[in-house]
Specification:
The structure holds 2 protein chains of 2 kinds. Chain A has a domain of 244 residues: ABC transporter involved in vitamin B12 uptake, BtuC. Helices cover 71% and strands 2% of the residues of chain A. Chain A contains 14 helices and 4 strands. Chain A starts with 12 loop residues before the first helix and ends in a 5-residue tail after the last helix. Chain B is mainly α. Classes of the chains: A mainly alpha, B mainly alpha. Chains A and B meet through helix 6, helix 9, helix 11 and helix 13 of A and helix 6, helix 12 and helix 14 of B.
């Protein structure tokens, strides 16, 4: 009844090709952005901002990165966390060399460092396909993780082996370090995520995105149609690692404040892969939905028994959490193998008809 | 020049100077390789028959070991515990087939791959809930596995072999022989190979896919139990094993996902290569290269043979 595009006529090709052709979608997006930019910082408390929203945004960004590689180009990667680590360490090194430069510049620059490393490890993707490639990306994961521990230059020869984020200002307001308010960190991160999502959306809807999807659907056919496989695959690796790197830098600088190599383990990579698959392969919206579900589910599971007054030992909760997450993964895959994004699509279709049967 | 010398000459000089040390290192690599190969074998069995890249094989090893030790701790005699554990593995196989594989039939590979992640999480959670997260000691003595070590005097030095390692290698060899016999000579084995060749053709001659999947997952469960016993006897039974099980992945890409001999040869190459690399070249970069060296060895091979050493030739059609 409310979600119906009757009466919205498209008078130009551009309007027909728009990312959000339906007016209600555009209004909905505007409302969500309004809530995210104004409502949440105004009304969210400290816990909600710094322990729910900021991690959610970081993981969404990383999931978008992996989705570009796995969902749009069809190259499975199990090394996302390592590329996040590259971004984090690159940002740390850059800020120690040039502490006076605007931090946002360095967060984006560290994305480029990560992209470079991604291209390097993406080279085998030309000869290796499918699960063979997935295992090959584990080489990146383990090698990079090893270098975060064994190359002292990366963490400025600290005795602790961890990286500490000093205070940085943006227009006089501290955005990192102990004095930064969660609201400021959240807003900075939200801006980065919004801009990068918009950028990713444009990439995907353009020539490059179509080339990626052609490669995903069948790379030999794509090659015959004149798509250069080398360039396309490496570009996908570069863009994906860029997003992962920025996510990693944001994770350390805007969320944790300090980081050890243990943050960037293989489990983190798997977690992000879950987000992409549960959310929906080849869908930007899915990256957000998946990140929300996978990240917030454990929090909810931890809070739920306490709030209901059920006395369960902390260790048991942890074990139950594993069981529930495992069962949910299988459940979601069986119910909708194409992810939450597809569920949303189906829901939208139903909504257009509602309340009439057809 | 110095660094080149250290990389290309010095390790070999060391090898020549102390051949007993070289043999010792290679033996350790060999044993590690046998265990990697056993895990990889479980992967290959399942991948061949159902096309599922079974990430849960590592946790199945841990789970089998834990169940065995846990049952024994509850007072079950050792050999009865082995049989009961086999029963548990069979139940897991049936459950996986019913709950996971059957509803997900004909889905893309990556979806099935993710589903095995779900199985992994479930097994971790259930295992920790029932048996606790602490490392446990494998009941090696109760199963009449040897302990202690023997020493050989060769090549101007001593080479020390753990008896459990020798036993592990022998048992692995026996198990592989039995599996080969099972695959080549029995009715079920032929059905399994038929399913591996083509699901549709196998269905059309009256082979029940569901039944085959249960059998394959159960076989992988048996392999997991043997691996769990062997590995547990060398160190402890704990969830840390699961991380080590990731080492089976480079073995797989080296040997090819569909080849049983590939899994074995790949396991040995990775095991020996990794130990030699760590021992002779590791100190040059600060050690600890064991964590990634295997992947780079596998990648090196893969650049020349994208389907692995023994994998089926990849034919692509439009």
């Amino acid at each position: 009844m409310f979600y119906r595009e009757a009466g919205q006529f498209k008078t130009s090709y551009a309007a027909d090709m728009a990312v959000f052709p339906i007016r209600q979608d555009r209004i909905g997006l505007a409302v969500i952005l309004m809530i995210a930019f104004v409502g949440i910082p105004l009304f969210g408390n400290q816990f909600f901002l710094s322990s729910v929203m900021i991690p959610f945004l970081v993981f969404s960004l990383a999931a978008i990165g992996l989705n570009i590689l796995t969902g749009y180009t069809g190259l499975i990667s199990l090394g996302t966390a390592a590329f996040m680590g590259v971004g984090a360490y690159a940002c740390y090194k850059l800020t120690t060399f040039f502490p006076d430069v605007n931090l946002i510049v360095w967060i984006l620059a560290s994305g480029f460092v990560s992209a470079l490393v991604g291209v390097l490890f993406g080279l085998p993707s030309l000869r290796i396909k499918g699960f063979y490639l997935a295992v090959a990306t584990l080489a990146a994961q383990f090698f990079l993780q090893w270098s975060f521990v064994r190359v002292p230059w990366l963490y400025n020869y600290n005795t602790s082996g961890a990286i500490e984020v000093p205070e940085h200002d943006l227009f006089g307001i501290p955005i990192t370090g102990p004095n930064a308010l969660p609201e400021t960190r959240y807003l900075v991160l939200l801006t980065i995520v919004t801009v990068l999502t918009w950028f990713a959306s444009n990439l995907i809807h353009g020539r490059i995105g179509r080339a990626w999807m052609a490669v995903r659907d069948m790379d030999i056919a794509a090659e015959l149609m004149g798509i250069k496989l080398l360039d396309t695959k490496l570009l996908a690796f570069a863009v994906s690692s860029f997003y992962a790197g920025v996510a990693g830098a944001c994770m350390v600088f805007l969320w944790y404040g300090s980081a050890e190599p243990e943050v960037f383990t293989i489990n983190q990579s798997f977690l992000i892969l879950f987000m992409v698959i549960i959310g929906g392969l080849g869908s930007l919206l899915g990256s957000f939905l998946g990140a929300a579900l996978i990240y917030m589910l454990p929090i909810a599971l931890r809070v739920l028994p306490a709030s209901l007054g059920v006395p369960i030992a902390a260790a048991t909760v942890e074990h139950l959490q594993f069981i529930i997450v495992g069962a949910l993964i299988i459940f979601f895959l069986i119910v909708e193998p194409h992810g939450l994004a597809r569920l949303w699509q189906t829901g939208k279709q139903k909504l257009r008809m509602w309340p009439f049967p057809y | 020049m110095d660094i080149l010398y250290k990389i290309f000459v010095d390790p070999f000089v060391q090898m020549g100077a102390a051949p007993d040390l070289l043999v010792q290192t290679m033996w350790e690599g060999l044993v590690a390789g046998v265990l990697y190969a056993l895990i990889a074998l479980g992967f290959v069995l399942i991948f061949k028959a159902s096309g599922v890249f079974n990430f849960a094989q590592g946790i199945m090893v841990v789970f089998a070991g834990l169940t065995l030790v846990g049952l024994h701790e509850m007072g079950v005699p050792a050999f009865l515990a082995v049989i009961l554990t086999l029963g548990v593995m069979f139940l897991i196989a049936v459950a996986v087939e019913r709950v996971v594989l059957r509803p997900l039939v004909n889905q893309p590979d990556i979806i099935l791959f993710m589903a095995t992640f779900g199985i992994t999480y479930l097994l971790i959670g259930i295992g920790e809930l029932i048996f606790g997260g602490n490392p446990k000691r494998m009941i090696a003595k109760e199963l009449y596995l040897p302990s202690g070590s023997v020493e050989f005097q060769t090549l101007g030095g001593f080479v020390q072999l753990q008896k459990i390692d020798i036993a592990a290698s022998v048992i692995a060899a026996i198990m592989i022989a039995v599996l080969a016999f099972f695959f080549q000579k029995t009715r079920i084995g032929r059905a399994l190979r038929a399913v591996a060749d083509s699901h549709k053709a196998a269905l059309s001659v009256g082979i029940s896919l569901n039944q085959i999947w249960v059998i394959v997952w159960f076989t992988a469960g048996i392999v997991a139990l043997v691996t769990g016993i062997m590995w547990g006897a060398r160190s402890d039974v704990s969830f840390a094993l699961q991380i080590i099980a990731l080492k089976a992945l480079p073995v797989l890409i080296l040997g090819g996902f569909t080849s049983v001999p590939g899994a074995i040869v790949g396991g040995l190459i990775i095991g020996i290569g990794e130990k030699l690399g760590e021992f002779y070249w590791g100190p040059l970069v600060g050690g600890g290269i064991e964590s990634w060296l295997a992947y780079f060895i596998a990648l090196g091979f893969l650049l020349f043979r994208p389907q692995g050493l023994f994998g089926e030739k990849i034919i692509e059609r439009i």
